[in-house]
Amino acid sequence: MEARRFTIALFFVFLLSKSYALSSRKDGARSPCKKLVFYFHDIIYNGKNSKNATSAIVGAPAWANKTILAGQNHFGDLVVFDDPITLDNNLHSTPVGRAQGIYLYDKKEIFTAWLGFSFVLNSTEHKGSINFAGADPLMNKTRDISVIGGTGDFFMARGVATLMTDAFEGEVYFRLRVDINLYECW
Amino acid sequence: MEARRFTIALFFVFLLSKSYALSSRKDGARSPCKKLVFYFHDIIYNGKNSKNATSAIVGAPAWANKTILAGQNHFGDLVVFDDPITLDNNLHSTPVGRAQGIYLYDKKEIFTAWLGFSFVLNSTEHKGSINFAGADPLMNKTRDISVIGGTGDFFMARGVATLMTDAFEGEVYFRLRVDINLYECW
Amino acid sequence: MEARRFTIALFFVFLLSKSYALSSRKDGARSPCKKLVFYFHDIIYNGKNSKNATSAIVGAPAWANKTILAGQNHFGDLVVFDDPITLDNNLHSTPVGRAQGIYLYDKKEIFTAWLGFSFVLNSTEHKGSINFAGADPLMNKTRDISVIGGTGDFFMARGVATLMTDAFEGEVYFRLRVDINLYECW
What we know:
homotrimer; 186 residues; mainly beta; AOC barrel-like; 2 helices
């Protein structure tokens, strides 16, 4: 009988450890399993800055063109980008990767955007990609988008990224701070 | 001995509650943890309706333009939208949010589309965003796309959304009913 | 007392089975719950091949047009596609579905792309859709993107897909091999 009780106790330990690891995902605290902060820098092509530009308008509505952001809060402008990612807010810091994908302005009455893009990180600290999608009501101080997947160091990651506009200069340059909180880590 | 048995019993209750909460995700019934139904309304810009239009063609193939949907089942037309979301099928009901993102027609032989967009909900009942992606073979009565993430009230949500075309009027207006079933809720 | 012990034993069996099924998701081996291999075939419209073309440039930067892929490694070209999926590397094999969505070239210095698309599978073996997003640094031998969701047979799927360029012919035709590894299966 004592042996059986010991076995039962062992099972308990096993079950508890498993259950705890898993249940941490759903219950209560919502504490991230990984936190990261990056900045990325977007210089949009305006007809004169082809050397420096990191992005370009590639889609625009019938009433607009591709060298000047459209009226009505740029509604309909679709931009492809390849923006440097840095660890601090200095455009000239050594990049740790590239933010690549699309953003598009999608409202006439106010600035809002929609983003589908990836962080492709390639530094001593991080190798892999983080994939994002979501709405960016960019006049808000902070905006949350979804981390929808990842590869490499970020294999199967899910989470939420909070965007903050860290600089906005004359419709040519903007810098976003991105606070990434992963809640699913593998 | 009785005390130990009581402790064991307590552990059981603990383990069972944890396991149940978690196992509901993968096993058997696939019953959603949250169900929502919305409608959204798309009025595409056609050169004459700039006041009412909620969407616009911003990309089109070489053989097409941006005020008339292209031939060959609109293949290649890419549309940016900012569509009102309502709780019923009435375009003039008070919106509870906006559907924002892109859709694109992607087949020559028949109408099909691909969608990447967000519901940005801002009502007394729901605050937050739901992010979607997927193929929309729109001649089918119902089509399933993925809920790939969420923020705010829909933090970390995943699920499936079923689209139904509720109205389609002269290639200017369409209304989709969206039945959202979330299977991961946090 | 024996009856109670039997009940306890039953609970154990129940808990173990549940816990095991779940814990396999996060711990250790990262072994996929489903593996699939497909090929898809892209023939881009170049002004002369409208019958055969499965894709078309629909967005391009200010300095480019929509019948010739842009200079600077096609930076800014956005392509809508409806490509046949086959089980082997033969363009003329019976398709098992279609790959539908967008890709875009997003770097001036080297070929890289970003992808948002779905596999819409309709064969005796598979019915349903798999949704993908991610960066495709296409000069690398293998590139990982995310499986961000699925429907039908791939309900709620998540995973990683590894892309390999299996053929690349004169900037008109390319063929990708896609090794899909799902790590969340429902």
